[in-house]
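DATA SHEET
Item: assembly model
Revision: 1
Owner: S.N.
Input lines:
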Amino acid sequence: MLITNLDEFVGNSTIKSQLARIFDLKNFPNSIMIEGESGLGKSTLSKIIATAAVCSSLKNSPCCKCKNCKKSLCDSHPDIIYLEKSGISQSFGVNEIRKVKKESCILPNEASFKIYIFEEADKMTRQAQNAILKLLEEPSNSTIFILTCNSAHSLINTLCSRCQIFSLSLVDIDLIIKFLKLHNPNASEEDLGKAAKISGGNIKKALDEIHSKTNALESNLKNMISFILEKNEWKMIVFLSDLSANKENFICLFTSFLLLLKKSAIIKISSKSILSQNEKEEIKTIIQGLELKKILSLIDIIEKILEYQKSNIDPNMLSAYFCTQAYSCINQSK
Ligand SMILES: [Zn+2]
């Protein structure tokens, strides 16, 4: 997921308004430190800052439209340099930092600023931290150094005092739900709420949680479609009996399958001879594998199942009903 500007960055409103002022005035500090636990968006924020610094628009930077912004967003801007990590500690060594010191006095290639990004700076040795300190002590007006770390306390004090520190915090659950919903419009309210709660305010954890749910749903849907097309009732019975243990997942699967069938029916009825490239793979499979009459019968069966489940009927019974009805319909000759 690409978050390209401050408006899209979730939570942390104080930091965002501080940065918005910096961006508007093009008054970037020479040294910036972004601290916060893993998953709060340190890399995303450093990229937004770097993009705003190279952006050629006078207002609303990063504009994400100019040549500089576009190059930054695809990680190919020559004035934005990510320091490469090496060695056992997977961090930057003194030699790399000395090289930066030599290069940083050369003017930027294309933008007004040259930005050096040191990610996970807290993994650096003390010696390397001292080398960076020397670098920050003699800044040039066109250079910005961005350091990210889990906690500023793990770095030497003299280095921290040279930087403007932005401390990212955990995000309110309501904001996380809103954010997840925006990026996962098909996820159920219940799954969104659960993912937000499990995350404890950590946006990366929330995204991982909701993705694991949606991926599971996608693979279940693929199974269901292939067991229908293969006319393999036995596999379907075993598959649904495993799934029946969790009523919520069971209903979610049938609801999503119903949606796919309805979309497939609409496409068949409108007799589009060629499917568009964006059409989901599952829809293409249904359209190619089932006649319209059978798709409509399956829609009818699933609508009944979703209606019956409201009366609290056991998912195992509903599975049995589905298998009997669905396979008697798809086994019929034309
Ligand atoms: Zn721009």
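QC remark: The first strand starts at residue 31 and ends at 35.
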